Amino acid sequence: MRVLIISHLYPSRADSIRGTFVHSQVLALQELGCDVKVLAPTALVPFPLYLIKDKWRRFHETPKHDSYQGVDVIYPRIIRTPGALLFELAGKNYYHALKPHARRWHRSQPFQLIHAQVAYPDGWAAAALAAEMGLPLVLTLHGQELQKIVHWGDKLRALVEGTLARAEAVVVPSEKMLTLADKHGVPKSKLHLVYNGLDALAKADLPQDLQARLRDKQILLSVCHLEPEKGVQHNIEAVALLKDQHPQLVYLVVGDGSYRTRLQELAQELEVQDRVIFAGRQPRDKVGGFYQAAHVFSMPSRDESFGIVYLEAMAAGLPVIGTQGEGIEPIIREHGAGRLVKHGDVPALAREISNLLDPALAAELGSRGKAAAARFTWQDYARQLLAIYNSLI
């Protein structure tokens, strides 16, 4: 089967961390015999902007065409505007950037199906291409389209819902997203719940400067993009509440983002700057060392469609803390792998962190989580996806 994947969430030689879960899906489909090509729209960053931010530098250094770990990927350049500014034009922007490459590939060896990750703008562009080529369209929803974009105005809501209506199949990673898709008009006959898989993380040592600092400490860990919705600020507030009760408690934050400066300021305001360590963005081959060193994983986020990092923590044998009503809730609850708190309830969060620092309880919940995490594989994901593809062809 020949499939065109469209996703701005795709790694590259310049950024091996971004969208690794999409790449894992593609590799698993290839193992099942699918011939997969990828179009990964990438922001155009002119000089001197790419000298200002590391994120913009990675966009600039992304190759235009590459064989990325055995996958043929084209990274067409698109114009991106800040936040929601002119975002209603992004779908057309993506479409015009993708069209010549999709058509050329299709003329050479016709595709049988187009699969877009994220309903807008990727999905909108994919729907237009699928209509022109006479191909079925599959959409995978990742959360932002139904938790954020639809709330940015009536035009964007219409664009998202219009794209959902044009898809022959809509894949979601959690019961939460299943409910949201149904709310936004996707017929149950088109909806498919397929849980994400999990990549094994390589064993690694912590950076030398951290090893001494973390020796004999109780380590609370988060691995995420640093934005307000991830709840890192609530973990910092919880650490401030627990600093006397748990004098050896240290909070290790892996990741970067626009909210980092504010989080550092908050740690100083609460006088826990010596207990909160910002380790920055870490490559995939190093991040496993942070899980291995930690005692409790906490990401009390909102707007979380699934959260693969919870599975990574569970696979490392850590008890996890998630948020009620979010995508990971049924997995934590069903398997007894951790605790759930209400988003923003810092006293409850602090209590659960304190409880999970108990070695016996942590070991029990961590063991359950490790067994549960082993069930989530990209191979199983790909088999379910291929069954959906075959039903449409």
Portion in beta strands: 15-25%
Instruction: Determine the mean pLDDT.
Output: 96
Task: Please summarize the sheet with the most strands.
Answer: 8 strands, mixed
Secondary-structure-based class equals alpha/beta
What's the alpha carbon Rg, rounded to whole Å?
A: 21 Å
Bin the helical content.
40-55%
Please outline what is shown here.
The protein has 393 residues and is α/β, with parallel strands linked by helices. Helix content is 44%, strand content 17%. The protein starts with a strand and ends with a helix.
Any key phrases for this structure?
17% strand; 393 residues; alpha/beta; eight-stranded mixed beta sheet
3D structure, described in words:
By secondary structure, the chain is of the alpha/beta class. Helix content is 44%, strand content 17%. An eight-stranded mixed sheet has the order 4-5-2-1-7-8-9-10, sandwiched between helices. The protein has a six-stranded parallel sheet with strand order 13-12-11-14-15-16, sandwiched between helices. Strands 3-6 form a two-stranded parallel sheet. The radius of gyration is 21 Å and the shape is globular.
